[in-house]
Amino acid sequence: MKRKWQLIAGAGVLLIGIGVWSAKDTFATARIGTAYVAKQTCSCLFVAGRLLDSCNTDFEPEALRSVDVVTGNSAVTVSALGGLISSRAEFQNGFGCHPVN
Amino acid sequence: MVRSLLLAILLGAPISHAYADLVPLPTQPYDVPWPTVEWPVGALPADMDTAAFSAAMVDAFDRSAPGLGETREVVIIRGGRLVYERAASGYSTNMRLVSWSMAKSITHALVGIAVAQGRVNINQPMGSPHWSADDRRARIPWRHWLQMTDGQRYLEIEAATIAHSDASRKLFGPGRLDVARYCAGLPLIHEPGTHWNYNSCGIVLTADALTRAIVPSPTSPEQRRATMMRWMNVSLFDVIGMKPQPEFDATGLLYGSALIYASARDFARFGLLYLRDGMWDGRRVLPEGWVDFARTPGTGTNADIYGAGWWLAPKEGDGRPYPNYVDTGPERDGFSAQGFEGQYTLLVPSKDLIIVRLGMTPEQDLRSGALKDWMGRVARTFPPVANTSSFTTE
After folding, report:
1. Which of 3.40.710.10, 3.30.460.80, 3.40.50.620, 3.30.930.10 is the CATH number of B25-95+263-394?
2. What's the complex ipTM?
């Protein structure tokens, strides 16, 4: 009986480990993805002077389906994973855009 | 010989025949004005393969050929004149688009200007404030960073996912607020000067060191980038009539390895500066020999496809470790600035030719090699020119 619980506990620890490892990669990917879309959309709009529909063609359609993009007068905010990860890029005249968080 | 001697002195290298094989760079025809304000316009050469050229443009702009992705701007300069330009619907050849890694070639030019101004010696250690004096990385000279033979561990092209790519991690992941700090953290895994490895971080660190040479005591990120921007404009961009938008991180650092926005016409101006051996309208902008340094391979393994800040044609074969070689003809003299998603500024001295292509080609298509083959196809439709034998630099 004791051995059975040890096996169950071991399996549980393993699953949690796998979950944490997977989540770590998921969060890292979400951070990179949101920052990438925010920064590049910001530059596309405010440096290149393109329209948002045109800027969206710079990304894989699947990538855009998993994020929310909010554009302002001189900034772009992109969030993913239900808002758990959010990235913002700001435009400054004469210097382009860069991530700010 | 004088040229080789000057180059050896400038670069601190032993006098050798390393540059002897280079096809001479063509001089600006006396009757063609420099394009500082406007590009002089000319006709496509009568003796070129017009049918093949037209077919290549249809393939690109109609997106009828697989693997090319979306071509947005093409500008072609021959003999110093604009002989062809075309933009996709919604774009123009004056619209600034992203350089991605073509910025590395511009950083190479900026370092050259700093050399000419006596601010930088590329045989001296480059250093970083993130390294202690006894750190081996602190002793790597500028030359090895520019040639990507620095020996640093940097993973981009073979990365399994974006979460494991140093390219995305430095710009958009853990390094996004201080890119130089992230890059300085990468360890050394090869003896400097013995092995080539594509290293965007090395060019970030180069841009950081260059910025310290120009702005040694910044008072704020805003002052740092403003001073750097002013120096770049005065030293390079205004001189050749280019109006790009370089970008800076939150510390005020010029990214240097990527993220310069410029039009195809402006990338062509930058290309002309290199095709004319660093001369512009009677003025030497880049040091004597700097362009030959750019188009000569570094030392060590895998070093046959990259010079300093520019991609090269290998002496033979398709090059190692990446088949980035653009086959412009039997002279194998093409050299190019290349960027993510298919950005190209290709220079062919024997044809006095510049081809700029800006667009959006997905990574899986780039791996097929279709786009670099297309660049080669276009270049090969142009015949060689006769007047490339002069070393005149005035």
Report:
1. 3.40.710.10
2. 0.90
